[in-house]
Amino acid sequence: MKALKKARLPAAILAARVARLASRTLRTGGGSTVPGVVARRVDPRILARLSRRLPRGSAAITGTNGKTTTTRMVSKILATAGIRAVNNSTGANLITGVTAALVSDSGLTGHPASEVGLFEVDEASVPKVAAEADLKILAVLNLFRDQLDRYGELAYTGRVIASSFASLPPGGRVILNADDPLVASLGRQAKSPVYYGIDEPALDTGGLQHVADSKDCPFCGTPLDYGSVYMGHVGVYDCPKRDFGRPEPAYRASRVRLEGARGSSFLLSTPEGETGARIELPGLYNVYNALAAAAVAGEMGVGLAEIARGLGEFGGAFGRVERVRAGDREAFLLLIKNPVGFNEILRTFVTGADARNVLIAINDNDADGRDVSWLWDVDFEMLADARAAGRADGLPPFMVSGIRAEDMAVRLKYADLPVGAVIPDRREAIEAALAATPPGETLYVLPTYTAMLEIRRALSEMGYTHPFWEDK
Amino acid sequence: MRLTIHHLYAEMMNLYGDRGNVISIKKRCEWRGIPVEVVDVRLGERVRPTGCDLFLFGGGQDREQALLAEDLSGKKGADLRAIVEDGGVVLGVCGGYQLMGHYYETPEGERLPGIGVFDLHTEPRRPEEERLIGNVLVRVRLPDTGESREVVGFENHGGRTYLGETEPLGEVIVGHGNNGRDGTEGARRLNAYGTYLHGSLLPKNPWLTDHLILNALRRVDDSFELEPLDDAAEIRAFESVAGRVAGRR
To answer: Is B94 marked active-site?
Structure first.
């Protein structure tokens, strides 16, 4: 019996490798989840066994927005510091994807090549992963309404995540976004939580957006007083009844300067000291991702200089923000996940004259969210305002695609924006949109998740990029 | 003539694109030269009808439903009841619809009282039951015009609503509707409408939007007629969803 148990781990790893090879050969996908499913079937304890053998343990990153980018940023920082990390970087963020990543990192003897595990984990999967992987760090980025039809309600999602805090080993750290009230409120259930946040009054948008989700005190329900609102419901707040307030961040960004597509710079303050930091990624949401990455790396014991250098050298994560050269044109893919992210992208690129050529592709498959009501929470009206202010003279109208192309066209119509070609088929749409983009210019593609996969595959078949599992 | 849209609890009931319904009404009035004012009616604030009004009451999360039930338990709820009895135009969606009935029972077993303008109540989903989620196609019959037309939307609710004497808004062609059992969807009494459909509801069902606008305007001028608009884009959006949904019958 004992010998059989011993043989189980290598058998599981071998089975997983065969499955991965088969999955890639048959082109059923990136081969990033199937091996995990197979390995777990052969040895259900494989994740616990392998993760215990990582010398520096594991860190998990969860939240509705920015998991992949933040995980990749931490990975870059660790590489800069000379620490070998294994991560599930292709968006396979359920327990099977985490297992698959560790399996592919381990030899047949079951010894990981990496020192630390770094995983992005789907919100609903956090308790399962925490129960099996030995998590030294669990970071919660934010909770925005996103694919609500899958997981029910935000407060419930918060409770699910908090239920995993007890699974952390002694000395395990919970890292929380201080500026997201619901996320920060989870700190009451954690032992010595670490907070991060932004202090930059100049970024105050002056009011809550239509899409703001958690605007009330998570404890007494009274509307929160906001000193600053940075995006959605994220900002500096206080409960008027003093039941709750924004916690003091240990990792802080101040003097934040957003420089559009060129990226952002800020002053990074940590328990170890202060330094100037720069990121190449656009938008305030990426400053938050960088700050979360700094907190995760800092709590792992990485020095401030390596953190700043790693962030500065980080170039972007798969599919979230990606540039693809398409002959003498360029396609700039910006993943659309929810209204807050969509607003940020519109604010960063489209209200100026940066984005002349735009294709929006909305699908409603499970992974996109089947309910497209959220399109009405996106502030397309800000684009109409920009046009009225003369900043968009002579721009071609937006092209729309996706299963829900017609819904998107109606949304633009009701924002008084001109609608260009409506081409539901994703492949035809990307071909037409590239053809309509003048040589030397950039086509901005704003797709939901599965539309992005389809457009990426179409670009790949047109010879313009590589399949994503080859992306490094 | 100026139409006032009273958006109830806009600051909290922002789920599922309620804003799409507000934008839809507003633009379809503005395109016809009818001025519109949107007034947010927040927690603790009274409704202040102007005589030419449309009331929108959208969906919220469970914790918010409890706050709203409390807010509606006094004068505000009584005012809304009087508005409905007087023939005022009210559209309740999802959580708002549930609170227009007698009560809404939470999964924890707490009964949140509604304003009772519809004879209906809502029971929680039992543990073995699924949330009712998906695209919906409904046939709606409007007694005042005799019109019978299809409406598309998206539903996502745990609660099961059971009608008493109140008429349903329509019959489910595809989807779950009020409770997934009796084939009814929504409720209708006088000029008050309740439904589980969002998606958002009004943008893809422009005739329903116009029906609500016209009913509101006719309370001031009973011979008022709406100029027709070019609804080609809206109809294409309706047909693309209706076609897909019906294909799965």
So the answer is: yes
